[in-house]
Design goal:
It comes from Colletotrichum higginsianum (strain IMI 349063) (Crucifer anthracnose fungus). The chain is an all-alpha fold. 76% of the residues lie in helices and 0% in strands. It starts with a helix and ends with a helix.
Length: 324
């Protein structure tokens, strides 16, 4: 909906604003977890937030009026519904073959991006808890589940605040009313390669920070620094691909005068992009499952074995940085 109604040059600002709203929700959730770790309370907050985010859009949405044609019933075509369902994969394949070059390349890199980010973002909290236990020692009274959980949440909360500050800085660079940011904004508008350079730097920082997290997994202080750096740069890996795709989709939508019946609509682009995200996450889940299964049946004697889930993410991040 945003792609079809917002001009291309305003797409980066919209994506940044969306990222700020998401980060604000993450800070609220982490703050609740820091005060009283409760899965029920966090779930309730997330459900209410999602409802309040979607309902206003649904309430003010005005569907496009379409000229209805009288339905023609074909008695001989009993398998019309089945053929329509079977045509979806073929249509998706044809759309993938005719993607604009920038969107096609972004989707390919997004597979590696999700393969790198998915295990890190999902296991980072457990990694911090295990690092806290490894630092304090197994027999310490301070290593209660609630204490280690709050220690990890505290680090993630600080990192999320840093992520918000980073996004606010980027928003300032894109502010058209700021004269100091005008040259940078013109450069980014005229050369979309600059966005991929930012993406490459984010991947490189992710790879270095994740590698450091593996090496210094037994020190909670070092692990906290690595985790904070990872979470601080995470908004860039979300903002850049969505900005590139939304920019290109808005351009194509404008060239076709907003006709949704023509191939290559924004919905098609975003659907294929979500497929690329799903592929990367699925591969990451499979790899994490294999590594976890191996760790359960091996006596490594190492502390904080959760960090051993991160080496594939390091490799994927470095390869993605080179492809950008």
């Amino acid at each position: 909906m945003a792609i079809d109604n917002i001009p291309p040059r305003q797409q980066p600002v919209f994506n940044l604003a969306s990222g700020l709203m998401s980060a604000s929700g993450a800070i609220t959730t982490l703050a609740v977890g820091l005060v009283k770790p409760s899965f029920r309370a966090i779930t309730a907050i997330c459900a209410v937030s999602i409802t309040l985010s979607i309902f206003p859009l649904w309430a003010v949405r005005k569907p496009r009026r379409a000229h209805r044609r009288p339905a023609v019933r074909a008695e001989s075509n009993r398998f019309g519904a089945l053929s329509a369902v079977l045509s979806v994969p073929r249509a998706a394949w044809d759309a993938a073959r005719h993607l604009p070059p920038r969107i096609r390349r972004t989707c390919k890199i997004q597979i590696l991006s999700q393969y790198a980010w998915f295990p890190v973002s999902h296991y980072l909290s457990k990694y911090l808890q295990d690092s806290y236990v490894a630092t304090r020692g197994e027999g310490s009274e301070a290593v209660a589940p609630e204490v280690s959980a709050q220690a990890g949440v505290r680090v993630l909360l600080i990192a999320e605040v840093g992520a918000v500050l980073l996004q606010m800085t980027v928003v300032r660079f894109w502010d058209a009313s700021s004269t100091s940011a005008s040259p940078l904004r013109r450069f980014m508008d005229e050369d979309m390669v600059a966005l991929r350079r930012v993406w490459a730097l984010a991947f490189a920082a992710l790879g270095v920070s994740t590698l450091a997290a593996v090496l210094f997994r037994a020190s909670f202080a070092s692990a906290s620094i690595c985790a904070a750096s990872i979470m601080t740069i995470s908004p860039l890996s979300v903002w850049v691909p969505f900005t590139i795709i939304s920019y290109e989709a808005a351009v194509v939508h404008g060239e076709k005068d907003g006709d949704p019946s023509t191939p290559g609509t924004s919905a098609t682009f975003l659907s294929l992009h979500e497929m690329a995200i799903t592929v990367g996450q699925s591969l990451a889940v499979l790899m994490s499952g294999v590594i976890s299964f191996a760790l359960e049946h091996m006596d490594t004697g190492a502390r904080n074995t959760t960090a051993f889930l991160f080496p594939p993410a390091v490799a994927a991040a470095m390869v993605a940085a080179l492809l950008c």
